[in-house]
Specification:
By secondary structure, the protein is of the alpha/beta class. The chain is 62% helix and 8% strand. The chain is built from 48 helices and 20 strands. Helix 4 packs antiparallel against helix 5 and helix 13 packs parallel to helix 15.
């Protein structure tokens, strides 16, 4: 089925900037000061409190003391400093300490305004000492807070101590409490300007405590409540914000209902309602505020702020035209009154969002970059900066630059987690990081981000638009995992919220679009088309010619394609592609549309046209993949986006170009494994420069840490939010370290990329990798075709056959299921049919290339998908005299994930001698171990996952196998058995061994293949597990052969393009030329005989594939072991020599 385009663009959560903070006083931030003689009195109907007067200087000094504040408020800092110095001299001559204290105070403000912070600290310190001596707590508190403010960026610990002293002093003030409230209010505004919400909150809470006692129900108290509401809103605590705003408005409505302050509080209420998803209430609040401001301050900054907020309401309703009108009106006011201000920057941000949602990414980028430049100059590392970083990340993601998108999101999240932890802004950014992870194919990581986001949103803003967006994202993950029921449930929950809060909006269209994806996956094309058409109607009305319109056109093309209406399909797809290539030509969405158009061209028998589309799709895909930091993430990306490769190979075969088809399939296979092997070989090569070798080993360690962290994340319970958050933070830190390391590699070793990343192999290189007599067989499955390509040193042939792929895969699975059972346990039907299945599979998978195979000495198999775990040796060529003739009787077989990996394996320089044998056969000491009695052991979990039961029994023939190998290898044998065969001892034994052999139990973990393990000593314990992850992370071998003589060591999670993630793959990656491994739970007795037969020939110099073949034939010709169950489970991966 063609790729279904998800409604991602509308799910990326935008950071809308609501200008709710203009009610906060900004006096301290602007370096202005309150009047000297007295602070503004807080008025109320119920309080008659009056502060004592401020300290009075000498009467002759009073004119200067009165004049300097005016210079400061006019920002004439040099003049103010000169006058303050004069005041200090005169006060000193008169011995007036009050005058001296005022002089130091004014000097501190002026120096602070000139950004001479070290000198300002000294002035504040001297002012504090004098005010303390004079006994004025208000000015002493102000000096402590000013001192702390100047130290904040250089000595935070001292600054925090000064703040604590100041707030303790403020709490004890009784002479001038209202003046103290003003000082704290100014300081709270200053810290708010620095985006330190915690200190700002402490200041305003103390102001509120003073006002409750000395000026209850006053205008000043209303403003303080409003400011606390702003802080709560910024921290994402909407319930607290609403409570503060409502208290504030109750006071203001009684004292001055049509005042500026009342309008400010209405704006805060509107903003809270908007974040809670209540658009109707938000609009009512904003319109009331606008009416007040238009009557008292037309064309003012306040008017611009409310227009901005009304624009956000229109934006959330999907009315982009009206939103743009509001934003442009607001920007006009800002550019006239305060050009290059934060307010103008925030409005530019919002205009960028309108352009973004219309699909005009270039225009959006210009707005966001202008906005960010202003914000980083005026408010670096602030919440406002984080909002625009988030939006720039969204643009980069839609342009196809996932690496830049991730970097922007991580920058934003760092700011949010520092300034507003566990806020809605954190949730928004987690959502966006989840989208990047999902687009790279990492569904587990994406779901973790979404679930963390949802937990925050449901706590702070239940049933809101943000909750709906995250539900939608979780629906996408479920859909991609094939869990259609959960996907539909999530989408319908989201749709219910949108229909209630934002009917007919772009967000509702996104959910309708995604419900169409579920319907098409369920085969209900009629319902899918209905959903897509409803979505398209909304999108074309609100955002014509946007990327969202392109998405829905793409999926309508899929519906037509599935119905066989190729003309209609092509029309939809070409319309979609025209939009995407105009706005985001390098995005993955463009690659997907090229891919589907290619499939359509193949059906129309236009392979050359198909090839052009597929080459463009793969160019985009490869560019994206190259930006992914680590091998495992690249592997996930490949699994999701490499589908064009086998289709391109099929197109080449249709044009009778088998050599190009072979090159194409090779390029899709085991890329991450080949890259890992090449980087490790480069890191340990003697001719690698020491500095580069050190960086590459750092790279290896970084990959190991990332893999380990990712495994911990997978194993963490979904309700352990704290651990998940920490692990996700660790992954982001590792990604940042990766970027730094990549930058160093690029700068210090410009040729590194060409050395470390294997180049695509040409057909000549593939052929040169094969010895005479070897035939390479590629197999690939598409939706309805089987591709087989045979390559020898002199010839290439290929065929693409239309097959029922589901039926073929079922036959493979059934044959493997039957052959993995001991014959005595097979039912009558299985005994009767398995040979027919085996012969049918040979006819389908091998016979088409019989012309090239008839003279082959050996076959190198490179299968994909389910074929990776097929027992190829047991395929039946024909029946003679009522007996099957197996393929292994005709030729030796070995496997590889790709020729690139094969070349890497053959390049290993193994140790010259030494056979390390680690064997455990005594697991019980006379009593079987039932790990079900030890539920907390990881080993018990592993056994349950493996489906092998939880009882560990002895391996009675393990001692015979060990003794036989000890005898064959003689003095070269280094052996650890039973209690001595710990993972640590095994690692020591194998470090420089040519042959590594394990005899033990093993268990496969199908859900987490890196947890698959050899069960060494101590028997049955977690300590005794040697996991695939441990081998991959920490083992470095120089082995010619690793033989895993245990059950299911070649089994694991089968990935279509990377191959099987198994214990065998881990040992190959650790540095072995070849690995012997098993496909099922093998017979203990038969395995001993197989190993004896194999090694008897191997030590005499027989090629490994021939030695294995001879050993298998020896069992086949022994009646007791003639059934393939006993001999066909073991396969050889890597170099046959």
């Amino acid at each position: 089925m063609p790729y279904q385009r998800l409604g991602v663009p509308m799910i990326a959560i935008m950071s809308l900037v609501l200008l709710v903070g203009f009610s906060l006083p900004c006096r301290a931030q602007d370096n202005s000061i309150p009047p000297t003689e007295q602070h503004q009195q807080q008025t109320s109907e119920s309080s008659q409190h009056r502060d004592d007067h401020a300290p009075e200087p000498h009467p002759e000094l009073k004119p200067l003391v009165d004049a300097i504040p005016n210079l400061l408020n006019e920002r004439k800092y040099d003049d103010a400093l000169q006058q303050a110095d004069a005041l200090l001299q005169q006060a000193s001559e008169k011995g007036d300490k009050t005058g001296q204290a005022y002089a130091h105070r004014f000097r501190a403000w002026a120096l602070q305004g000139l950004n001479r912070l070290e000198e300002a600290v000294s002035a504040w310190r001297q002012a504090r000492g004098l005010w303390q001596e004079l006994g004025d707590g208000v000015f002493e508190t102000e000096a402590l807070l000013g001192w702390a403010f100047c130290l904040w960026r250089t000595d935070r610990a001292q600054a925090e101590g000064l703040i604590d002293q100041a707030l303790d002093l403020a709490q004890a003030e009784r002479r001038r409490p209202l003046a103290m409230a003003q000082v704290l209010s100014d300081s709270g505004a200053a810290w708010y300007g620095l985006a330190d919400l915690s200190i700002s909150k402490r200041c305003f809470e103390q102001v509120l405590a003073i006002q409750n006692r000395f000026a209850p129900h006053s205008v000043g108290m209303a403003l303080t409540l409003n400011n606390l509401g702003n802080i709560a809103a910024d921290r994402g605590d909407l319930a607290a914000a609403q409570q503060y705003y409502e208290q504030a408005f109750a006071i203001q409505e009684r004292l001055a209902p049509n005042s500026r302050e009342a309008a400010v509080i209405l704006n805060g209420l509107g903003s809270t309602a908007l974040y809670q998803g209540n658009l109707e209430a938000a609009q009512r609040y904003f319109e009331r505020a606008l009416a007040i401001f238009e009557s008292i301050a037309p064309n003012s900054l306040e008017i611009a702020a409310i227009l901005n907020s009304l624009g956000v309401v229109a934006y959330n309703r999907g009315d982009l035209s009206r939103a743009q009108q509001y934003y442009e009106q607001a920007l006009g006011i800002y550019e006239r009154l305060v050009p290059n201000s934060l307010a103008a920057a925030q409005t530019l941000n919002n205009l960028g969002l309108v352009a973004y949602n219309r699909g005009n990414l270039e225009e959006a980028l210009r707005y966001f970059e202008r906005s960010l430049a202003l914000k980083e100059r005026l408010a670096p590392n602030s919440l406002s900066v984080a909002q625009t970083l988030n939006n720039l990340g969204n643009v980069a993601r839609h342009q196809g630059d996932l690496a830049t998108a991730q970097q922007r999101y991580e920058q934003a999240l760092g700011i949010y987690e520092r300034l507003a932890p566990n806020s809605l802004s954190v949730a928004q950014t987690l959502n966006n990081l989840g989208i990047v992870a999902r687009q790279r194919g990492d569904l587990a990581l994406a779901q973790g981000y979404y679930e963390r986001a949802l937990a925050i949103q449901e706590r702070l803003a239940p049933n809101s638009l943000s909750v709906a967006q995250t539900l939608n994202n979780l629906g996408i993950v479920a859909r991609q995992r094939g869990d259609l029921a959960t996907a539909q449930q999530r989408y319908e929950q989201a749709l219910g919220i949108y229909e209630r809060i934002a009917p007919g909006s772009l967000r509702e269209a996104a959910v309708l679009h995604n419900l169409g994806n579920v319907a098409i996956a369920q085969g209900d094309l009629e319902r899918a088309q209905q959903y897509y058409e409803r979505a398209l109607t909304i999108r074309e009305r609100l955002a014509p010619q946007s990327l969202e319109v392109a998405d829905t056109l793409h999926n309508l093309g899929n519906v037509a394609f599935s119905r066989g209406d190729m003309e209609q399909a092509q029309q939809y797809l070409e319309q979609s592609l025209a939009i995407v290539e105009r706005f985001a030509p390098n995005a993955l969405e463009a690659a997907h549309t090229h891919y589907v158009l290619a499939q359509l061209k193949l059906l129309q028998n236009q392979p050359q046209a198909a090839i052009l589309h597929l080459q463009r799709a793969l160019a985009i895909t490869e560019t994206q993949r190259q930006a992914v930091a680590d091998p495992e993430s690249r592997a996930l990306f490949s699994e999701r986006y490499f589908s064009p490769y086998p289709i391109l190979a099929r197109a080449h075969l249709q044009l009778n170009q088998p050599a190009r088809a072979a090159e194409t399939l090779e390029r899709s296979r085991a890329r991450s494994l080949a890259e890992t092997l090449q980087q490790r070989q480069l890191a340990f090569a003697e001719n690698t420069p020491p500095a580069l070798r050190q960086l590459l080993r750092q790279q290896d360690q970084l990959n190991a840490k990332r893999l380990q962290t990712y495994r911990q994340l997978q194993e963490t319970r979904s309700d352990d939010a704290e651990t998940i958050a920490q692990l996700q933070r660790t992954l982001r830190e590792l990604d940042q370290q990766q970027r730094v390391l990549n930058d160093r590699l690029r700068k210090e070793f410009p040729d590194y990329a060409s050395l470390a990343l294997p180049k695509p192999l040409t057909i000549q290189q593939i052929q040169q990798s094969l010895d005479a007599g070897t035939v390479l067989l590629y197999h690939a499955l598409t939706e309805d075709h089987l591709l087989i390509i045979a390559v020898s040193r002199t010839e290439v042939r290929g065929v693409a056959r239309r097959v029922d792929v589901a039926h073929l895969e079922k036959q493979v699975q059934q044959l493997r299921a039957v052959l993995s059972k001991p014959p005595v346990f097979r039912n009558v039907l299985e005994r009767r049919e398995w040979q027919q299945q085996s012969q049918w599979l040979y006819a389908e998978l091998v016979a088409p290339m019989q012309g090239m195979l008839k003279n082959a000495q050996r076959v190198l198999l490179c299968p994909d998908g389910v074929l990776c775990q097929l027992p190829w040796a047991a395929l039946i060529v024909k029946t003679e005299n009522g007996k099957p003739v197996y393929w292994i009787e005709r030729t030796a077989l070995h496997l590889t994930p790709s020729v690139g990996v094969y070349r890497q394996a053959r390049a290993v320089q193994p140790a010259s001698q030494g056979a390390a044998i680690a064997a455990v056969w005594n697991y019980t000491n006379g009593k079987p171990i039932d790990l079900a009695q030890h539920q907390r052991l990881e080993a018990a979990t592993l056994l349950r996952r493996s489906g092998a039961g939880t009882v560990l029994e002895d391996l009675p023939h393990g001692s015979k196998e060990t003794a036989a190998l000890r005898k064959l290898f003689g003095k070269e044998a280094r052996v650890a058995v039973n209690t001595q065969a710990t993972p640590q001892q095994a690692r020591r034994l194998t470090a420089n061994a040519r042959v590594v052999h394990f005899v033990c139990h093993a268990r496969v973990d199908h859900t987490d293949p890196l947890s698959s393990a050899l069960l060494l000593a101590p028997a049955g314990s977690d300590v005794g597990k040697l996991t695939a992850g441990e081998v991959l992370l920490n083992w470095r071998l120089r082995a010619d052969l690793v033989m895993l003589s245990a059950c299911e060591t070649g089994v694991g999670m089968a990935k279509r393009y990377e191959g099987v993630y198994s214990l065998g793959r881990a040992f190959l990656a650790a540095g072995s030329r070849s690995v012997g491994m098993s496909l099922w739970k093998v017979s203990d007795e038969a395995t001993v005989k197989l190993m004896e037969g194999f090694y008897r020939r191997y030590v005499r110099g027989t090629a490994k594939d021939e030695a294995l073949r001879a050993a298998q034939l020896g069992l086949l010709r022994t009646p007791k072991y003639a059934d393939p169950y006993f001999w066909s489970a073991f396969v050889l991966m890597g170099d046959y020599r």
